[in-house]
Amino acid sequence: MKEFIYGRNPVYETLRAKRRQFFQLLVSENAKEQGRLAEIIQMARAQKVKVLRAPRNRMDKIAHNNQGIALEVSDYPYHNVLDIVDKAESREEPLFVLILDTLQDPQNFGTLLRTAESVGVHGVIIPLARTAQVSAAVVNASSGASEHLLIAQANLAQAIRELKDAGAWIIGLEGSEQAQSPGAIRLDGGIGIVVGSEGHGMRRLTRESCDLLMKLPMQGEIESLNAAVAGSVALYLAYLEREKKK
User: Fold this and answer.
1) Which of 55, 74, 93 is the last residue of a domain?
2) What digits encode the pLDDT tens for the residues 106-126?
3) Nearest CA to 210 among 193, 232, 234, 189?
4) How large is the C-alpha radius of gyration of the chain?
5) Owning domain of residue 127
6) Listed residue (42, 54, 35, 33) closest to 15, CA to CA
7) What angle do CA 16, 47, 151 make, to 5 degrees?
8) pTM over 0.85
């Protein structure tokens, strides 16, 4: 299947990553060919992608926040869990994986992908069903970070076993009384951080597969952070610990 990636940064990063097939680049007929837009057009032409000018109403049918550009591409190229393990081994680094348990909101998904890419995770794992997919909206929300990540669709129980076999500890993020604070947990070794769905958290079997549960200390009036914010904080805490070890 084909789809349109839209927005200047998402389109730019998709072209830069070169992981999909490209069919055509649509540019709004009133858009000025300068700045990032000029870079995108030049990059597309260098990769022999057809560049077409399109009326605004056609662009708006693709997405209202298209920023005057849309790239027609092939489906997202998912990987598998072993690809993620191999990436960590090739870099001679302890595994660093983000596991998303039935996250539903594309904005939250995209935000977490953007954070994951920025802190150097080796890959992201999502379930086979009942979850947000890497759609154009997710690519947009991630500002194109999704195109540089290894994202695997897998049975989470099986994927977690594979990560454990590769030496990772699985850390579930939740606010229960059983959960420990980040200071009580080693985050600089091989780890998989699990973020549950909005509102419901981790499913029972996923929670039972975790080696440890972690909660973020809070002092304000609200009871919890949303999935994207909590997951991003946890990823950065792990990133900081891993940097200290280096």
Assistant:
1) 74
2) 999 999 999 999 999 999 999
3) 193
4) 19
5) 81-245
6) 42
7) 35
8) yes
